[in-house]
Amino acid sequence: MSILRGLVCFVVMVMALPSGVSAHALQPGYLEISPLAGDSFRVFWRKPDVQGRPMTIDVLFPETCDPRRGPLVARDAGAWSVAWVANCPGGLAGQTITIEGLERQRTDVLVRYELETGQARSERLTPDQISVTIPEIPNSLDVVRTYLPLGVEHILGGLDHLLFVFALLLLIENRRSLIIAITAFTVAHSITMAAATLAWVSLPGPPVEAVIALSIMFLASELVQRDEKESRLSERYPWTVSFSFGLLHGFGFAGALKEIGLPATDVPLALLSFNLGVEVGQLAFVAVIVLTQLALRRLAPGAGSYFTPRSIAFVISAYAIGGVSAYWFIDRVAAFWS
Questions:
Q1: Beta-ladder partners of 29
Q2: C-alpha to C-alpha distance for 96 and 177, rounded to whole angstroms
Q3: Which strand (E) or helix (H) includes residue 123?
Q4: Which residues pair with 204 in a beta bridge?
Q5: What are the residue ranges of CATH 2.60.40 in the chain?
């Protein structure tokens, strides 16, 4: 067992234990603009929630529009949203829309708009780019540029998903079995993410999030009870375990994607781009661990002996994973009644 496995596990624990112990990054804001009759547009605006209050960002339409700003937002399922109608003589093509205050935040805003019914386009605004100029001709390539980075950000900001993958890395020493297990996890969450996003299957979000935490607790239990003389269930059938829990994690990814929103006319492309982003982030996470492991083997030969399955460092790491996931599980179950 490489020393990397213990060190990285402790790093993950440190990342996961700040105040609040959040498993997900802050959800982005969402702005949707749809054409109505004439030069009128329906506007839907959702702000992220920050400790029970709406984030201090706002939409500013061009001077030709009335109103330039929308009414006050109202609490809506963990976020703050409002809808209104903006009248913009001459339309919005060539006009600039700005998200005021975004430069002072650490989140993104996804902007989806239609110049004509059925012609949708999406843009991702960041603190470094707070405005979007509505073009004359929509370009579908922008869907990829918008949703692929969102997929990467979601997986790298979702410590519960990364902790599950890391637990697999700790548990499965055989390289071939590990590749099969991670591939099964990828295939499984891709299936349920697509099915849930396309509304073929539906599960309530809070129980899914709780069971995701439970899946990490299961792997932590396998680590604690690991015996060099007898293989655990997850060691004997790694792909079955990772595939089964991957189906649940896919519903978690789908929930995040629904929060972000999908372009009505580019759903398959947006879904594919987001999923590719998730896989890019996941592979990057695994690559960092593997490369660090190779580097440590060169720098500290023999150090891996301190992290055998029954060593103190290994057991502490396993209990740390279990402790964090147990906190998430209790917190998410308690949220059922909040």
A1: 109
A2: 52
A3: strand 119-125
A4: none
A5: 29-139
Would you tell me how many other CB atoms lie within 10 Å of the CB of residue 252?
25
Find residue 42's DSSP bridge partners: 34, 85
The domain defined by 29-139 folds into Immunoglobulin-like (2.60.40)
The CA-CA-CA angle for residues 139, 141, 147, to 5°, reads 120
CA distance 278 to 124: 17
* CA–CA dist 218, 110 (Å, integer): 36
Neighbours of 88 (CB within 10 A): 22
Whether the predicted model's global pTM rises above the 0.70 cut: no
pLDDT in tens, the chain (338 residues): 443 444 444 444 444 444 344 444 457 889 999 888 878 899 999 998 888 888 999 999 999 899 998 888 888 766 788 999 999 998 888 889 999 999 998 889 999 887 665 567 788 899 999 999 887 654 677 778 888 888 888 888 888 888 988 888 888 877 788 888 888 888 898 899 888 888 888 888 788 889 999 999 998 888 888 766 667 777 777 888 889 988 988 888 887 777 777 766 677 888 888 888 888 888 899 888 888 877 877 776 665 555 566 667 778 888 999 999 999 999 888 877 76
